[in-house]
Specification:
Oligomer: single chain
Structural class: mainly alpha
Number of strands: 2
Strand content: under 5%
Radius of gyration: 22 Å
Helix content: 55-70%
Shape: elongated
Largest sheet: 2 strands, antiparallel
Length: 89
Amino acid sequence: MTHEGFDRSDATARARASKRAANLSINSELLQQARALDINLSATLEQALQQAVRTRQAELWRRQNLHAIAAYNDAVEAQGVFSDGVRAF
């Protein structure tokens, strides 16, 4: 399913995407502990970034659609939904 150019079915293609070196700064004690525990820094950062990107994309989507969602909710409140007389629950 595509949402704002994001296709979840393309997850395997993203996993195979080329890697690119990046320089970052990190707390030296934390880095030392991670290395001592054999934590894969690249994989850990990539997972954290994926989650951060998903979170930010969701926040952006909510902000961009806030007015449409409010308008829909107002319409449902005023007019109800098509199944109001049909539901048994």
